[in-house]
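Q: What would this complex look like in 3D?
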Amino acid sequence: MALDAETTAFLALDDFEMAAWAPRRAAERGVELPAPALPGVIDNLVLLKSQTALFVAALGEAAGEAPETFQP
Amino acid sequence: MSFCSVVEIAGEVRAGRVTARAVTEATLSRIQRLDGGINAFTAVTAERALAAAEAVDADLAAGRPVGPLAGVPFAVKNLFDLEGLPTLAGSKIRRAAAPPAHDATLVQRLTAAGAVLVGALNMDEFAYGFVTENAHDGPVRNPHDPTRIAGGSSGGSAAAVAAGLVPLTLGSDTNGSIRIPAGLCGVFGLKPTYGRLSRQGVFPFVESLDHVGPFARSVEDLALAYDVLQGPDPSGDPICIRDAEPLAGRLDALAEQPLRVGVLGGWFQQGAFPEVLAALGRVADALEARDEVTLQNAQAARAAAFCLTAFEGGELHHEDLARRAMDYDPAVRDRLLAGALLPAGVAEAAKRFRTIFRDEVREVFQRYDILLAPASVCPAPPIGQATMEMDGVPVSVRKNLGAFTQPISYVGLPVLAAPVNRPGQLPIGVQIIAPPWREDLAFAAALRLQRAGVVAAHPPTGAL
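A: Here is my prediction, written as structure tokens for the whole assembly.
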């Protein structure tokens, strides 16, 4: 199964595109990004994207499956 | 009584050689005298403490039974509900929150066992960090070197125990927030199995990953507290349904049994400072751990925990971020805002990967009873240091101190963080990791190490 379209699009962003994506996405989510926060938010999003790519790659074909209820 | 153990204090109080009131007064006096240099406490509940101590003394005087923690002072991270005191969770936003009507379940259990609450403790805002450099309450200073961090997010909980202000505290651990400060401050900390201890009355951070647990200065003290804290609480925390499995009476025998111990390599040693690896080696030698064990998916597991944390944290704070983002600690705000923008599919995938990594770990625990790993990459960095080097690459301290703890809490394993015996040096901690629900094995290994003099909590030298 594939990842959902929204997550796939997020992973396809180039780092330099994050500055434009973040305010757009914030508006969709009903959150305002204060100017002093913007650089930090963008840095964090770039990091989150790279981290997401890591475990999605490890998930392989299972990436789009529904998660089970977790038991340790 | 500054560095007396939980076991000693309770024994002396029960035997009538000291009153609970005297212990409490001495504790309050020491906090007043020394906490200015540590900044572990955000509130001291002196009136409540003295009343509770007097109640213990009255029970003893009347011949009524008292609990196993009679007269033992304790304090809790300020995300635990305390009746009549706003639950700050390290934030500015919650300073005006209505005080809870009841204590959190774990506070109730300690109190019912005779322990005496003396205050609430400093932490990273909303538990999102590993440094406890709180923008509103100031940094917690490491008792072993006040120019250095105590670690976080339960920094106040670790520092208060390390400084001898109290012998017992509670903290929370989502990604390493008990294990890292325990290691950096040189005390013992327990992050139990996910679901073992009730989170009722604990301000949440990441529901999928939140754990709570105790700090103390010896394995015996930690075990005594753990036994009091255990037991189901399904109405307060739906995942806390497991019956108590007390350690009392069986720990000595367990510590004598053979243990199959492996040392986590690969991801769990990459970038670690040489002194951290040397400390880990001492512990491994003492437990006759010969094998290096690699978890192939550890880095991906850490990444998944990182993203799940950001997503669930962002969701939890969505409303406040939309209304008053500038009232957050800037370092926390930017991470939560980024998390609030993540697609939900990221969190779904992170949860899916969790079972895959759990199954990999389960397979390894077919061959081992205990796995060892460093608690953190390095000893405590200086307060204010933004970056550190891992494998020659500068990385954020705030985001990377938990590199070795995050994969483990991601799959909910029990871990006892123990301080390697290095008197006069900056503390270094090791994670003693057990299979799910087998905290007893982690305690057994820790007890064996403590008896061999390989792990120990030392009073700070010089600084206090």
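A: To summarize the key features: Helices of chain A lie at 5-12, 18-29, 38-59. Residues 38-59 of chain A form the longest helix (22 residues).
Q: Very helpful, thank you.
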